[in-house]
Design brief:
Layout: H1 12-44, H2 47-55, H3 57-78, H4 82-114, H5 124-147, H6 150-179, H7 185-217, H8 221-224
């Protein structure tokens, strides 16, 4: 213990895990901006914004490689205790989910490049709302991870129901427009694909929350999540 305080002494691994946590948070925020940029490129029809998202991909890869290498180094060098092992294992999994989020944003940006300036059809406001909710879920999940906050992690699963419902609404609206002789059927196909991408962004936010709960409690998804996607700890 630290003399006179009663607090446990800091271990070298504590500082290393704290730095790793901040790096994962930084990678997550970078990925969120890729999603937002992809949606903004579609919103505005501006290929410059889409190309900016493409330019973020290399740093996303660098985050992924460097964080994984550091987590493995700590595992090999520090002989971590049980909780530390779960944190490091979660870190390696989390960067996979974060990388997928960034790449989903990249895919959305490619749709904007392929069809720049296309007029927005009836389902577009639903997609915009989906993007706002899905990226907010990722940010909430990252906050839960950084602060080891199980209440925030639980809220991520609640928010996922809203994104799933928006995805269903987008599909219904696309079908409705198709039935009415749409001016641009290809654009509707893009909407369906983007809606699916945004749903996957939300799903990966849930995976981040899932691993946060596991690293703090040792409980896996089947042990804490009901069939109604309610967290019971």
């Amino acid at each position: 213990m630290n003399e006179g305080t009663g607090a446990p002494a800091m271990r070298p691994i504590d500082a290393e895990i704290a730095k790793l946590t901040q790096d994962i948070d930084g990678m997550g925020r970078w990925a969120v901006e890729m999603v937002r940029g992809g949606v903004q490129a579609m919103e505005t029809g501006d290929p410059a914004i889409a190309n900016e998202v493409r330019g973020r991909d290399d740093k996303l890869d660098a985050f992924d490689m460097e964080i994984e290498q550091e987590a493995i180094r700590i595992l090999a060098m520090r002989q971590p205790a049980a909780h530390d092992v779960r944190v490091l294992g979660a870190a390696i999994k989390l960067i996979t989910y974060v990388d997928r989020i960034g790449r989903l944003g990249l895919d959305i940006a490619f749709y904007a490049i392929d069809d720049p300036g296309a007029p927005h059809l009836a389902p577009w406001p639903l997609l915009r709302t989906m993007a706002e909710k899905a990226t907010a879920m990722v940010e909430l999940a990252l906050d839960a991870f950084v602060h080891r906050d199980l209440a925030k992690a639980s809220r991520v699963f609640d928010a996922d129901d809203e994104v799933d419902e928006l995805n269903r609404q987008v599909l219904k609206e696309c079908v409705k427009v198709l039935d009415g002789d749409p001016p641009e059927p290809r654009e509707l196909l893009t909407y369906v694909l983007v809606s699916r991408h945004l749903e996957r962004v939300a799903d990966n936010a849930c995976k981040i929350a899932e691993k946060t709960i596991y690293m703090e409690t040792g409980k896996r998804r089947r042990e804490f999540l009901t069939p109604e996607k309610k967290v019971v700890l």
